[in-house]
Amino acid sequence: MIHWLKQLRSAFGVAFLWLVCLIYFTQGFRSFVWTAVSYQLKDRLQLSPSASQFVFSVAFFPWSIKPLYGIVSDCIPIGGKKRTPYLVLSTVLSLVPWLFLGLDSTSRSSSLYLMIFLTVQNLGSAMADVVIDAMIAEAVRLEKASFAGDLQSVSWFAMAVGGVCGSLLGGYALSNLKIETIFLLFTVLPTLQLLSCALVEEIPANNEPLPELLDSNEFEEKSKLSSDNYRDTNKSSTRRRKGQKKGKKGASNGKSEKQKKQSKSLASQWFQSLKAATFGLGRAFKQPIILRPMAWFFIAHITVPNLSTVMFYYQTEVLQLDAAFLGTARVVGWLGLMFGTFIYNRYLQDMTLRKSLLFAHIGLSITILLDMVLVSRENVGYGVSDKTMVLFGSALGDAINQLKFMPFLILSGRLCPPGIEGTLFALFMSINNLGNTVGSFMGAGLASLLGISSGSFENMFMGLAIQVFCTYIPVLFLFLIPKEATGVSAS
C-alpha cells in the first residue's frame, strides 16, 4: 500500500494528489451539510414534503448541465489556462453561499433565497467536479497512462471516506449544534480547497480548437481566419514601420489597432472552438449506438417518481428517528454502495447488461415493498424494529442502485469515441443527473396529488404502490440496450 502511494506521488506529485483527494473528499462530505439543509426545510421553514423535494430538485439542476462547464473551460482559457482559474471560480461559488447561509438569518429563513444559494453552491460543486475530472484525464494522458485506474480508485476512495465521515458527523452535529453553525463549519473544506489551488501549477494552453472536433469546413474557416490574421498583422506591422517618422502619436495608433485586431482574432477563435465542440458533441450523441442506451437510462429515471424526501419526513415525524440515527443509516448506505460495486465486479460482469438491469429493477421494487411494509407497520407485528427496517433498506437500496449504475458507467466508457471522451462522458452523467432531477419533480408532483404532507401520511402507502408499478416501466424499453453487451465485452 505504501509502495503504491509512493508510485502515485512520484508520477503525479504530492500537490496534485492532495487536490484530487481533497475535492473528492469534499464531494462526499457534502452529506454533512445537506442533512442540515433537510432539517432546515422541514423544521425551520416548515415546508411540505412536496415543496422540500421541489427545492432540492431545482437546487441540484446544475449537475444536469455539466458538459457546458467542460466545453467552456476547454474552449475559453482564462489567463492562458483552462483548469486552475475555473477551479478557483467554482470553489468560490461553492464557498460563498454557505457563508451567507451561516451568517445571514434572512437568507436561510426564506425558501426562495435558500433555493437560490443552494443552486449557486451546486453550480460551483458541479463545475469543480468537471474540472478536476479533466485535470485527472490530462494528467493520466500526459504523465503516466498506466496509473489511470489507480488515480480513479484513489478519487473514489476519497469520496467514499468523505461520505462516511460526513454522514456520521452530520447526525452528531445536528444533535449538538445549530444549523447555521453547521453551514459555517462546512466552509472550512472549500476554503482549504481554494488555498490548495495555488499549489498546483498548470502549463498555459494555446487557444487552438481541438482538431478532432473540427470538420473539413471548420478547418477551412480556421485556416482562412489564421491567414487573415497573419495578413492583418503584417499590414499593421508595415503601417507601423512607415509611420515611425510621423511621430509617437502614429505609433500609438498602430499599436492600438493591432491590439484590437488581436482581441477580435482571439474572440473568433473562442467562438470557433465553442462551435466545433458543440457540433462535435451533438454529432457523436446522435449516433444510434450512443443515443439508444442513454435514452433508456433517462427513461429509467423519469418514469419512477422519487419519494426520498417524503420518506425522510415520514421517518422523522411518524417513526421519530433522530438525526444521529439517520446519519448512521446513510453510513450503512455507503457501505452498501461499496458492497454493490464489489458484487458487480466480482460476479456479474459476464452477465448481459439487459439481464443485470432487469434484476436491478426487480431489486428496486423489493426495496420499495420494504418501505410499504414499514409504512403499513406490518414489521412491528413480526417483531422487527423500525430502525432495523431502515438500516436494512438503506444498505439494500444503495447496493442495488449501484448494481444499476455500474452498467451505466460501463456503457458510457465504452461508447465514448476518441477525442471527446471527457465531454461526452460528462454529457452521459448529466443525462443521469437530469433524469434524477425530473424523477424528483415527478415525486413532488405525486406527493402533492395524493395530499401527502407534514402530519398527513394516509396516502403514503398508495404513493409507494404507484412507485413499485412505475419501477417496471423501464423494463419495457430494455430493447434499447445492446442485446449481447456485458460488463467485459461489447455487442
From TrEMBL:
<dbReference type="Pfam" id="PF03092">
    <property type="entry name" value="BT1"/>
</dbReference>
<keyword id="KW-1133">Transmembrane helix</keyword>
<feature type="transmembrane region" description="Helical">
    <location>
        <begin position="388"/>
        <end position="411"/>
    </location>
</feature>
<feature type="compositionally biased region" description="Basic residues">
    <location>
        <begin position="237"/>
        <end position="249"/>
    </location>
</feature>
<dbReference type="InterPro" id="IPR036259">
    <property type="entry name" value="MFS_trans_sf"/>
</dbReference>
<dbReference type="GO" id="GO:0016020">
    <property type="term" value="C:membrane"/>
</dbReference>
<feature type="transmembrane region" description="Helical">
    <location>
        <begin position="423"/>
        <end position="449"/>
    </location>
</feature>
<feature type="compositionally biased region" description="Basic and acidic residues">
    <location>
        <begin position="219"/>
        <end position="234"/>
    </location>
</feature>
<feature type="transmembrane region" description="Helical">
    <location>
        <begin position="326"/>
        <end position="345"/>
    </location>
</feature>
<keyword id="KW-0472">Membrane</keyword>
<comment type="similarity">
    <text>Belongs to the major facilitator superfamily. Folate-biopterin transporter (TC 2.A.71) family.</text>
</comment>
<protein>
    <submittedName>
        <fullName>Integral membrane transporter family protein</fullName>
    </submittedName>
</protein>
<feature type="transmembrane region" description="Helical">
    <location>
        <begin position="12"/>
        <end position="34"/>
    </location>
</feature>
<feature type="region of interest" description="Disordered">
    <location>
        <begin position="219"/>
        <end position="262"/>
    </location>
</feature>
<feature type="transmembrane region" description="Helical">
    <location>
        <begin position="54"/>
        <end position="72"/>
    </location>
</feature>
<keyword id="KW-0812">Transmembrane</keyword>
<feature type="transmembrane region" description="Helical">
    <location>
        <begin position="84"/>
        <end position="100"/>
    </location>
</feature>
<feature type="transmembrane region" description="Helical">
    <location>
        <begin position="153"/>
        <end position="175"/>
    </location>
</feature>
<feature type="transmembrane region" description="Helical">
    <location>
        <begin position="461"/>
        <end position="481"/>
    </location>
</feature>
<keyword id="KW-0813">Transport</keyword>
<feature type="transmembrane region" description="Helical">
    <location>
        <begin position="357"/>
        <end position="376"/>
    </location>
</feature>
<dbReference type="InterPro" id="IPR039309">
    <property type="entry name" value="BT1"/>
</dbReference>
<dbReference type="InterPro" id="IPR004324">
    <property type="entry name" value="FBT"/>
</dbReference>
<feature type="transmembrane region" description="Helical">
    <location>
        <begin position="295"/>
        <end position="314"/>
    </location>
</feature>
